[in-house]
Amino acid sequence: MSSSDPIVRVxxxxxxxxxxxxxxxxxxxxxxxMRRSNHEDFWALRNISFDVYEGETxxxxxxxxSGKSTLLKCLTGILQPDEGTVSVAGTISALLELxxxxxxxxxxxxxxxxNAAIIGVPRRQIEERFDDIVAFAGLEQFIDNPVKxxxxxxxxxxxxxxxxxxxxxxxxxxxxxxxGDADFQAKCGDKIADFRERGKTIVLVTHTMDDVVRLCARxxxxxxxxxxxxxxxxxxxxxxxxxxxxxxxxxxxxxxRWGTGEGQIERVELLGADGExxxxxxxGEPHAIRLVLHADQPIIGPEVAIEIYDQxxxxxxxxxxQGRNVRIDxxxxxxxxxxxxxxLPLTEGTYxxxxxxxxxxxxxxxxxxxxxxxxxxxxxxxxxxxxVTLGGNWTIDG
Length: 398
Prior knowledge:
- The chain is an alpha/beta fold.
- The chain folds into 3 domains: 1-90 and 169-173 and 183-246, Rossmann fold, CATH 3.40.50; 94-165, Helicase, Ruva Protein, domain 3; 251-378, Coagulation Factor XIII, Chain A, domain 1, CATH 2.70.50.
- It is 23% helix and 36% strand.
- The chain is built from 8 helices and 19 strands.
- It has helices at 27-32, 68-75, 108-118, 123-137, 152-165, 182-197, 209-215, 233-245; strands spanning 6-20, 39-53, 57-61, 83-88, 92-95, 170-174, 201-205, 218-223, 226-231, 251-252, 257-258, 264-271, 281-282, 287-300, 303-310, 315-320, 330-341, 349-358, 365-378.
- A hairpin with a 4-residue loop joins strand 15 and strand 16.
- Helix 3 (108-118) packs across helix 5.
- The longest helix is centred in the middle third of the chain and has 16 residues, at 182-197.
- The protein is globular and about 70 Å long.
- The two termini are 50 Å apart.
């Protein structure tokens, strides 16, 4: 195969599922309804075509239910196309559902060989790499215990270790770059970097747009089972995010709430530069977060805190009045507290805001509203990426 030949070729791929509207309660019903079963065809994929070249990292994005996972299962041979073809030149390893194929009653050692056999890796190759797999997963003490006794973290670490240590020509990754603790995530990142440096081919499905831009040479956008766009990662993610924001706005979520009830957070509003509520925030622009508090009896010196999380549940920021040396004398009746931002440092994306009303000590929770407000941040004047934009200016000598 020449370097110009694709290592993965998807040609006019379509995949259909049948959706049945009647559930048979017995074998007799099944036989009687065989010729008149009430169903409709659902095309999860329709006429998908693209090539991935040797040594390329290729990203696939799209909303939940767009057909991404079905596409990957066709690439790995788990599903067969109803129309079109899929060809992969070389060995393939997939991180679709970590630990899929593990038998709970077998030991970790036995499951390593079983899982490798499922993905077509010879036993001799696994014997050569077995110590590396166990060391990568950090399970030396537990490798001979049944995996049914493993924690969920141990389970996915072993699945990841098998998939990345069998040295495939093509590695398929579906939303699993954030498994395990921080140390294991760093090891995973190093392993992916090693794959890229050695010229391995990677097909990556993720909802993290920064990973697509940072890691991929090209990307494809799958929308409702069809190929919407293919090209440069930044162009693809920008186009996708524009549609993802369309028709949305600030959403108040009546989720988890707890506290003594001595005071309440009545509502939270996101404001624009003019002090009026907005449906979208814009990166780098002036904004404010306004909290309306209420207490029937006076609360002396309470603390207000705000937490913001991204869609991976990563804490982006935790800011409080006491942390900024700001004192609220008291809350009795209604009281408004506003946190002002000269330039919103969040980059484009979707975020969730939690807020808390605490007593003067900061220890007793009067009212906590978890993931209370969901909001979108639109791209501003810059193309900064990541979780936050640093602001600032470049200067060039001379």
